[in-house]
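hey so u asked for the seq, here:
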Amino acid sequence: MGRTTRRSLLVLLAAVVCAGACAAVRAGFSDLLNKVKDRVGPALLANDVLAEPGAEVMLEASLRSGLRLTGEEGRRIQFHLDERRLGEVRSDRDGNASVRWTAPETPGDYVVRVRVKPDDQPDKPVEDTQLLVAVRKADAPMVVVDLDKTVVASGFAWVLLGGAKPMAGANLVLERLAGSHTIVYLTHRPDFLGPKSKRWLTENRFPTGPVLTSTLGGFLKGSGDYKADRIASLKQTYPNLAVGIGDKISDARAYADHGLNSILILHVDWSEDDPEDYEKLARELASLPAQVHVVTNWSDVSAILFERAVRSKEAMETRLRQAARDLRGRRKG
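ran it, structure tokens below
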């Protein structure tokens, strides 16, 4: 890992610590730092996969430790499906390990258990992890949905530190949608948050689906560009990727630009006292393609998906500009 990459990673981890400042006040900075250390290593990470029936796929994992996520070289990493071992390989100098596997011919969700061979564990034993191989035919209908401030009411820091709550109704809407579509959780979170993200989704009763995280390089690229690249790649295999749901304007643009029914869950602080903040947000909405829906809750998402309702961005633009005018009027009064 180069000096620039290490510096960028430390900036990212510093942001996580800062986002948990409230917890630090209560528990003390040293306790918070220990929580961060516990969650970044040593840890076994594995990447979920979408694959067509019978396709050859790479099952990828990595073993990392410490705040710098240093790779653990030379550990024997095993991949198991039920009681069958799919492969064993030693981790390379970056802690990475991968095996080739031919996906089953029958569509379905296949959970692969990944572990460090018991007699090859580091001094601090590493928990097993899982990766999901979601086998789907090329014509399978799919939905991509973001995590932070979309299904999770807060940002990724609170998932890392504990205490994150789901947005009201999100799991029920996605569970209903999962009856006809594959749910793909496409997040800009870096991959070391993958295991925690998957556990959170399970604990909060969200439907099963692959969780696609970013690498550090993808994280530094920015959410909009990262999402655009991943969606373009997915659509090459799965052209029926039909809906995108997220909270960032850049994400909504990426969804719409790739032909998805784009739904933006907008979080507006209506207590703001600067009219320019509302006008700036209105201008950003105005720059989006006309077909983007703008909502503030999952009830409206449900109406769009199941009742063919329209939640136009123009309606929210109007509301924001009116809020700016009202503020200026009160100041003059």
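The chain is about 40% helix and 25% strand. Residues 3-40 form one domain.
lmk if thats what u needed
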